[in-house]
Amino acid sequence: MKRALLGTYSYAEFGACLGAWLPILAGSRVIHRNDPVPRMPGRWLRRLARVTTRLSPLWKFEVRGTAPSDIGTHAYVVVCNHESSADPFLLSHLPWDMRWVAKQELFRTPMSGWALSLSGDIPLRRGDAESVRAMLAECRRTLGEGLSVMMFPEGTRSEDGTIGRFKDGAFELAIDAGVPVLPLALTGTRDCRPKGSRWFGEASAVVRVLEPMPTAGMTREDLPRLRDEARERIVAAVSELRRERNGG
Questions:
Q1: How confident is the model at residue 202 (pLDDT cuts 50, 70, 90)?
Q2: What pLDDT, on the 0 to 100 scale, is given for residue 156?
Q3: Could you tell me the CA-to-CA distances from 160 to 22, 86, 90, 187, 196 in Å, in that order?
Q4: What whole-number distance in Å separates Cα of residue 114 and Cα of residue 209?
Q5: Pairing label, strands 98-103, 148-151
Q6: Statement: the pTM of the whole predicted model exceeds 0.90
Q7: Confidence band for 163, pLDDT divided at 50, 70 and 90
Q8: Burial classification of residue 14, based on how many CB atoms lie within 10 Å of its CB (0-12 exposed, 13-18 middle, 19 or more buried)
Q9: Best label site of 28, 61, 97, 101, fewest CB within 10 Å?
């Protein structure tokens, strides 16, 4: 009974916040329509995520680690493991702006999809080569304007919390653009909303900002090493975070 009540409240709270935020997002998109990249609309969407989290009695989030001192003016390709659809809510607490790459299906969802579209985040139709090229081109343009890009290199949420193989796209992008990779490690969000679940769960989740990985002087030949090292760092950090959560 308690779970049903809290779940109903969470849906109602999120819907109310989203409904209130859509006009703000639309207004921001119009006001900043001539900006080189949609930094401000994206900032408003992250604020929405933070507000809904603070109003939730179920979720407690924490950010650990230090952001690079120049991330406000210099672009990074930010990569993170992907546990849950709640990941963006946690990652929205990070203290810098980013454009996010998300699967195109999310942009078609009523209300939340409208918010994504208004925010200026970047859609990707998985398995479609033309869509991948368009996404990478928009990411390169964004990085060129000094704004970071956020990608989940696993390509989909984990079924069981195990970190899957990383795809090449984020690391190819970083090498081609000559910008550093910034790895993030998160855990705990699977309890917020496990894959396939329609209910929200009570959870504490944490994201840790890891050390940046420079790509200066790298070529495509260095891509596998960069990709695998980023994954290894994230796997190690996630394992440490999980041990801490379990009291180990």
A1: confident
A2: 84
A3: 34, 15, 19, 12, 11
A4: 29
A5: parallel
A6: yes
A7: very high
A8: buried
A9: 97
127 backbone φψ class: left, alpha, beta (φ>0; ψ -120 to 50): left
Residues 6 or more apart whose Cβ sits within 8 Å of residue 50: 92, 93
d(CA 106, CA 196): 15
Only one residue has tokens 């849906």, namely: 11
Find tokens 């709640």 and name the residue: 86
Q: Is residue 153 helix, strand or coil?
A: coil
State the CB neighbour count (10 A cutoff) for residue 28. Answer: 22
Radius of gyration of the chain (CA): 18
Which residues make Cβ contacts (< 8 Å) with residue 40, sequence separation at least 6? Answer: 28, 31, 32
Q: How many residues belong to the chain? A: 248
Task: Answer whether 77's CB lies under 8 Å from 214's CB.
Answer: no
Q: What is the pLDDT of residues 81-115, one digit of tens each?
A: 999 889 999 999 999 999 999 999 999 999 999 99
- Across the chain, mean pLDDT equals 93
Give the CB-side neighbour count of residue 176, counting CA atoms within 13 A. Answer: 13
Phi then psi dihedrals of residue 100, to 5 deg: -105, 145
